[in-house]
Amino acid sequence: MVISGSDNGIKKRGCALTKQDFLPEESFQSWGNYAKALSSTKTRLQDRLLARSDDNLELHAMRARSEHEMKKTLNWFDLIWFGIGAVMGAGIFVLTGEAARNDAGPAVVISYLISGTSALLSVLCYTEFSVELPVAGGSFAYLRVELGDFIAYIAAGNILFEYVVAGASVARSWTSYFATLCNHDPNDFRINISSFPAEYSHLDPIAVAVSIAICIGACISMKGSSRFNSVATIIHLVILLFILVTGLTKANPANYDSFAPNGIRGILKASAVLFFAYVGFDGVATLGEEIKNPGRDIPIGLIGSMLITITVYCILSGTLCLMQPYSEIDVDAPFTKAFQAAGMNWAKFIVALGALKGMTTVLLANIIGQARYFTHIGRTHMAPPILAAINERTGTPMNATVIMTIANATVAFFTSLDVLSNLLSISTLFIFSLVALALLVRRYYVTGETSNSDRNKLIGFLAVIIGSSIATAVYWAIVEGNGWVGYVVTVSIWFFATLWLQLSLKQARKPKMWGVPLLPWLPSACIAANVFIMGSIDKPSFVRFILWTLVLLLYYLFVPLHASYDAARETERTANASRTSNIEAGVAQ
């Protein structure tokens, strides 16, 4: 059975898909309607550009459009394992070698701690939002409430890119590590089509099969998926513990004699690379509708899982540098080569098994988070409302899960899109920065309560915080020496802007259950850290990011703008009718 979209919600239909499943809004019912909508683009854009949702709308009216509720089956224990499973994939096995050998040396431990702390800042921001707004939309819903529809749409486009590219890359990496376990070259398991361009010539049916298997599990039961994730993640941690203990038997403290060969710049450069070993936790924030006690379970699950991950990464990277001099660490397969150098060739199979287990849970978390993001985006009609459907029997977003898996598997079958990996990084950091910015707006601005003077002050402080963060990142990117004067200037501007924000503006809203401490310092530091890490990404990736954003804008003007405008008008009519009915009922009494 297919669920199709309508203006007010979704309804059951037969097995055939029609235009109504994707574009049920009034603007798309005829070419005449569409032409009329296009002629009103300027007016509609002005309406939606700064239009903000609110907590009540996201928690009730938007969720009602799915017709059925997701099942509340998760607790803090499930979330801890989901958090670890979503983050701890193959990153530790791949990124550590490059960071240690080329940049930080044994001080890669400090680099992991710095990047982990930066990621923890984002986790704290996500935690407050997900406790206050436990909805499937995650960061999309948070941005819709605080920064408006338009910014949320740009974020949605980057979320789509982030999850599809990440899912495809991990699925193809799954094939590579599976081949290692079987003592084969990865391309032995791929279909070579010589007539295709080189980057698309190795078709990967195993990546597709793994994606489909995970999709089936995610569709059948969220609690079942949680149990599988917990077991797989525990096995993964046991394997990592084995690698740790075995590696320490070959430890040589003399390898730490040159602890930070490239100084603080090498440590910070490595931390920028290693930050991406921590991404994935944002998908856990999309589970809000399925958590029994969000106020208690989400902080424990999100923050607890990140603290465990930081600890494991620091210990493992420290062990690697004890096993080998940093100058001999292999960039591509650091742990495998370190064990081989110690005469333990068999250990490469243990490492491959650990990576395989990690990537399996990352894939599961990827499709679960992706489906829930787009369930909520579909509720707003910025994506086809067919994605908003919740299956009545399983309580899972089956339509979104299947459609997103098809997108992931299609990309994975043809290419890993390695050329877009840095663009993925920009998208991730961009969204993390927006969420931290949105949290500051949420705490210091409430429509109808905050004065115009305080609103303008807030805008000014935020502009200076963002501008000084960008200046620090740009200075880092262009200055190779010890030009500390520039950092003193830019960091001081950031510091005093944050301080003046704290001293001159009173918080307009307090969190109801759990809030980020040390406001505004931690969200402001989160913005600065994310922007700083962006400074380490190459220029061509920024060009691609700008081009991708322009494509999103062009599509927005032709479809999502009009679909979301019609949906918003329908929501207003429904709310007005409800208020009128309540007033009449009160008069009648």
TrEMBL record:
Membrane association type: Multi-pass membrane protein
Record's keyword terms, sorted: Amino-acid transport, Membrane, Transmembrane, Transmembrane helix, Transport
The name this protein goes by in its record: Cationic amino acid transporter C-terminal domain-containing protein
Taxonomic lineage from the root: Eukaryota, Viridiplantae, Streptophyta, Embryophyta, Tracheophyta
GO molecular function terms listed in the Swiss-Prot or TrEMBL record: L-glutamate transmembrane transporter activity; L-lysine transmembrane transporter activity
Domain of life of the organism encoding this protein: Eukaryota
Organism: Dipteronia dyeriana
Family to which this protein belongs: Belongs to the amino acid-polyamine-organocation (APC) superfamily. Cationic amino acid transporter (CAT) (TC 2.A.3.3) family.
TM annotation in the entry: 73-95, 107-129, 150-171, 228-247, 267-288, 300-326, 346-369, 400-417, 423-446, 458-478, 484-501, 513-533, 545-563
Cationic amino acid transporter C-terminal domain ranges (all copies): 514-564
GO CC terms: plasma membrane
Location of this chain's protein in the cell: Membrane
Keyword Membrane tagged: yes
